[in-house]
Amino acid sequence: MSLRPPRASGFALYDAPYLLLTVTALLWAINIVIGRVVAGHVPPVTLAFVRWTGATLILLPFALGQVRRDLPLIRRHFWLLVLLAATGIACYNAMSYYGLQYTQALNGLLVQSTAPLLVALWTFFIFRERLSLGQMAGIVTSLVGVLVIISHGSLDTFLHLKPNIGDVWIICALVIYAFYAAILRKRPGLGPLSFLVSIMALGSVLLAPFALWEAAQGRILHFDHMTLGVLAYVMIGPSIVAYLFFNRGVELVGANAAAPFLHLMPVFGTALAIIFLGETIAWYHIAGYALVITGIALATLAARAKRRPPA
């Protein structure tokens, strides 16, 4: 079995950024729902630590050849990799899981909708990259679609969604992750597997002392059936697969063009509730989905036009 990095000539999916980003949003939406389900059952920092340690151990045998080849680059860009690991791996995930202990998955998905705007702000502050009117229109349109879904088409319902300390933690996590997405363009020229395994391993090291502190407080991981199932999913789906796909999507289209696809997370979240929790589909689901898809299409077309050289 081989998990060598896909190449454009041999793996068409790896050159289909919008499909990669769509799958990423689905995997991360499931992760948010799972994070809420196990809140209070699995310690949040320990969950993040075991998630990334396990993902590193799973990916390392497949990435070892690339790691050996890229070792000089890893040494040269070590502190940049530490920064990417701290923002995209350690802080974001531990803070998100912690926040989900105090808020509903619905609120968590709503807060995720701010990610495209946060990415746009970071890319402007760091690289002075401005959004085109088309990109901004797409982000706003899809954001409205998310709000329609979450509020059930009712302004009163939306106004009564009260933020709490959990929402604040998730917002802070998203600000940090948006920084990761923005500076991802500066990633060293490592292979996709060696880059991912490097930041995952560094993220695990950064999380280790906090996981030990959590254990010292008496919050121990109990390996029952629920815990084992959750760990198996989070190690592979939202970790290895989603990060490979997201990193490649940003590489192909840029952070601002990739960010609107994060609006698909609440869409997938409500769809999962309909499929697995028996909730019924309503007009606001259809209207919201249509607005999200329209917004992503607008942002995608605008990003393509922005990248197209003048005649």
UniProtKB/TrEMBL annotation:
It comes from Xanthobacter autotrophicus (strain ATCC BAA-1158 / Py2). The chain crosses the membrane at residues 12-34, 46-65, 77-100, 106-127, 139-159, 165-183, 195-213, 225-246, 258-277, 283-303. Residues 18-150, 165-300 form the EamA domain. InterPro entries: AA-Vitamin_Transporters (IPR050638), EamA_dom (IPR000620), EmrE-like (IPR037185). It is found in: Cell membrane. Pfam families: EamA (PF00892). This is EamA domain-containing protein. The keyword Transmembrane helix applies. It is a multi-pass membrane protein. One of its GO terms (cellular component) is plasma membrane. Keywords: Cell membrane, Membrane, Transmembrane, Transmembrane helix.
